[in-house]
Design goal:
222 residues, alpha+beta, outer membrane lipoprotein receptor (LolB), chain A, twelve-stranded mixed sheet, 15% helix
């Protein structure tokens, strides 16, 4: 593994990665934001009325994410036993080689840039309307088939804008709808053992502090 030469200014690395953080988080951070929401859902709803919100099996999901008139694909992998998640933004120039890793057991998240050989600690996944102290309520709202899989729609209310989450019985998020629009929808789901190496933080990479705008208290995407 190539190590960044020590003669390269660290502030230059940080500046480059911060620009790439903006490119990754701003257009495609919705799934990152929802990751915090689904953990909070598991904490707030009672066992009798809540869905399984973290996958119980290793799985790889391809999502179509829509923001305004733009729809792009994002890939998510789960290592179920470790409650670890990897999110690869769309493969465009601004985000090439950039990906997120989230540890839902420890509520930690990192953004890795293979091109810069850098790691940015993003802190805990963003808090949202399904946070532990929210007043959100959840109601079964029907059944659906998404990407060839059955899922149950769960309507939220009381803790922010109403949202409809379609989750499989084993905790895979297949669709998110709000305001009559589909924000996220799975197009492909593959259940297969995940390679733990894909969820590791590269030990030789330079660690950088996150920009304030990308931290856990940043405003959720609209």
């Amino acid at each position: 593994m190539r190590v960044i030469p020590t003669t390269r200014p660290k502030r230059r690395i940080a500046s480059t990665l911060r620009r790439r953080v903006g490119a990754a988080v701003s257009p495609f951070g919705l799934l990152f934001y929802l990751s915090g929401m689904t953990v909070a859902l598991a904490q707030t709803a009672s066992p009798a009325d809540r869905p399984q919100t973290l996958p119980t099996r290793d799985v790889e999901i391809t999502y179509n994410i829509t923001r305004g008139s733009q729809t792009l694909q994002e890939h998510t992998r789960w290592l179920a036993a470790e409650q670890a998640q990897r999110v690869d933004p769309p493969n465009i120039a601004a985000t090439a080689g950039v990906y997120f890793i989230m540890d839902h057991k420890q509520r930690r998240a990192w953004l890795i840039d293979d091109g810069q050989h850098s790691v940015m600690d993003m802190g805990p996944p963003r808090h949202g309307p399904l946070d532990a102290d929210s007043t959100t309520r959840f109601t079964r709202a029907g059944e659906a088939t998404v990407a060839g899989l059955h899922c149950t729609d769960w309507a939220t209310s009381g803790g922010g804008p109403p949202t409809l989450l379609c989750l499989t019985i084993d905790g895979v998020l297949l669709r998110v709808q709000a305001g009559g629009h589909t924000l996220i929808e799975a197009s492909k789901v593959i259940y297969a053992p995940a390679d733990p190496a894909l969820f590791e933080i590269p030990k030789s990479y330079t660690h950088l502090a996150p920009p304030a705008a990308a931290g856990p208290h940043a405003a959720p995407p609209g």
